[in-house]
UniProtKB/TrEMBL annotation:
Record's keyword annotation contains Transmembrane helix: yes
One annotated GO molecular function: serine-type endopeptidase activity
PANTHER family given in the database record: PEPTIDASE S12, PROTEASE DO-LIKE 8, CHLOROPLASTIC
Alphabetically ordered keywords of this record: Hydrolase, Membrane, Protease, Transmembrane, Transmembrane helix
GO biological process: proteolysis
Amino acid composition bias (Pro residues), ranges on this chain: 97-107
Protein name, entry field: Trypsin-like peptidase domain-containing protein
Provenance organism: Streptomyces tagetis
Ranges of Gly residues composition bias in the record: 110-128
Keyword Glycosyltransferase tagged: no
Length: 509
């Protein structure tokens, strides 16, 4: 199986590929939506069920009022173990012909157990019953402690009596009125807090509703890219509206605008839409530098999970450069490839296209996919968050968005060779035969100029380890056409290196 080498990403595991995370149009009580595209791919839809809160209270604690011990804590809700990602996408890279879409995974239903348990209760003396200290013993440490306790109680009673007397006497000589504040005081949240970041970013995010001419569609998220009304989102969020469908964007203040698709890139899974009659007071979200993000950095995700618009969740960067190949599983859909930012911030269907922010409120990624659980035992509904979310690095998304605004067409970096998309751990192998009978190494292309041949196995791109064809494609697509890279490859059991200047390919065809 082969693919034109542009860059790929190996999905998390062979069982259930990550899924994109858009959701169908919201309803008052949205059922597990049909993903259609934070979709059902390698960036995909995590799961999450919260345990019920257990009743506090240690056993055997001394109760000075004779209160009984609290019953055992209620049983906790069942927890589900995450499943590994699915197989690598197709067998051919998007540069020539797209690989056939992987079979859509069977998605788990979104739900959780309802736990019940005993509450606080019991019979016997309750709080407030009188306490009679034992009579002091004439000898021993116990008697001394009891005597001290009695003295303390007397002193406490005396102090309380004196306090009341002084207050009463004071009231007789002067009158003081104390009024409680009816405003609750002002609350100030620093810009660096999650609340501060959310307050600043929410007005620049939108909930996107897309529908095809036959009414099929779903809900996703986007964010303001510039003052001209351009909104950046995922390709799979707006795919249904590309050919004459309906598209709208709603801001948190309830203002809704019709929109049109400016351009979309299936391979990158990035799209740009533009608001019709855009307001003049748009505030673009600031873009960060995804290359400088570190594992452990705080993250904030904004989106419309399951149609719940303007939802804010938090987490950290769990990993960088995570190879991800994703597809929405629909007939004829093409896989997208990315070297993703992985986050444990809760991301669900409907978060697709929304911003992943750093602690300062800068966009560092576009939430695109989540890992789903296995298809065993949970039904066939849409998967939910299991803490494995994937975002397109903003440095890559920014370049793609600029190209789409400029020309309406995506531009992909390429090496000009077909590589196998079979899941391996040894590297990306240049196939013996190209796509649709074409040459495996494009004549006069970048790979040929660098001396690469069919059968060579690429193991590194610069300092990035390459373990498969999808990983190579995803890594290549983090670069721009014209970038120079160093390729490490194996031929005849020996390791070689060569410098290569990336070429370009326009469009998704």
């Amino acid at each position: 199986m082969s693919t034109e080498n542009e860059g790929t990403a190996v999905p998390p595991a062979p069982s259930a590929p990550p899924v994109r995370v858009d959701s169908p149009a919201a309803s008052p009580h949205p059922a597990a939506p049909d993903d259609g595209g934070p979709h059902t791919p390698a960036p995909a839809a995590p799961y999450g069920a919260s345990d019920p809160e257990h009743a506090p209270g240690p056993h055997g604690a001394f109760d000075p009022h004779g209160a009984p011990e609290a019953p055992a804590a209620p049983p906790s809700a069942p927890s589900y173990a995450p499943h590994q990602a699915g197989d690598a996408p197709g067998s051919q890279a998007p540069d020539a012909s797209w690989p056939p879409p992987p079979p859509p995974p069977s998605l788990p239903s979104y739900g959780g157990g309802d736990g019940s348990g005993g509450g606080w209760g019991g019979s016997g003396g309750g709080w407030g019953s009188s306490y009679q200290p034992p009579a002091p013993k004439p000898r021993g440490r116990g008697g001394l402690v009891a005597a001290i306790l009695v003295a303390a109680l007397v002193a406490g009673g005396l102090g309380g009596g004196l306090g009341y007397t002084l207050a009463r006497n004071n009231d007789e000589t002067s009158s003081t009125t104390v009024a409680a504040s009816d405003t609750g005081g002002s609350v100030k949240r620093d810009p660096g807090t999650v609340a501060g970041v959310a307050a600043k970013a929410l007005p620049s995010t939108v909930t996107i509703e897309a529908a095809s001419t036959n009414g099929e569609g779903g809900t996703g998220t986007g964010f303001v890219f510039d003052k001209q009304g351009h909104i950046v989102t995922n390709n799979h969020v707006v795919a249904d509206a590309v050919d004459g469908g309906r598209l709208s964007a709603t801001f948190p203040d309830g203002k809704k605008y019709q929109a049109r698709v400016v351009g979309h890139a299936q391979g990158y899974d990035v799209a740009v839409i533009k608001l019709v009659d855009a307001p003049s007071d748009l505030v673009p979200l600031p873009l960060g530098d995804s290359d400088k993000v570190a594992v452990g950095d705080s993250t904030i995700a904004i989106g419309a999970p399951f149609g719940l618009s303007n939802t804010v969740t938090t987490g950290i960067i769990s990993a960088k450069n995570r190879p991800v190949a994703s597809s929405d599983g629909s007939a004829g859909s093409k896989s997208s490839y990315m070297s993703a930012l992985q986050t444990d911030a809760s991301i669900n269907p409907g978060n697709s296209g929304g911003p992943l922010l750093d602690a300062q409120g800068n966009v560092i990624g576009i939430n695109s996919a989540i890992q789903s659980t296995s298809n065993g035992g949970f039904g066939t509904g849409q998967a939910g968050s299991i803490g494995l979310g994937f975002a397109i690095p903003v440095n890559q998304a920014k370049f793609v968005a600029q190209q789409l605004i400029k020309t309406g067409k995506p531009v992909y970096a390429k090496i000009g060779a077909s590589v196998s998309l079979e899941e391996t751990t040894s590297g990306a192998k240049i196939t013996e035969q190209g796509v649709s009978g074409s040459a495996p190494v494009e004549a006069g292309g970048p790979a040929a100029a660098a001396g690469l041949k069919p059968g060579d196995v690429i193991t590194k791109l610069d300092d990035r380890v390459i373990d498969s064809g999808p990983t190579l494609i995803g890594e290549i697509w983090t670069h721009k056409p014209g970038d120079k890279v160093t390729v490490t490859y194996e031929r005849g059991g020996k390791q070689h290196t060569t410098d290569l200047t990336l070429g370009s390919k326009t469009g998704d065809e």
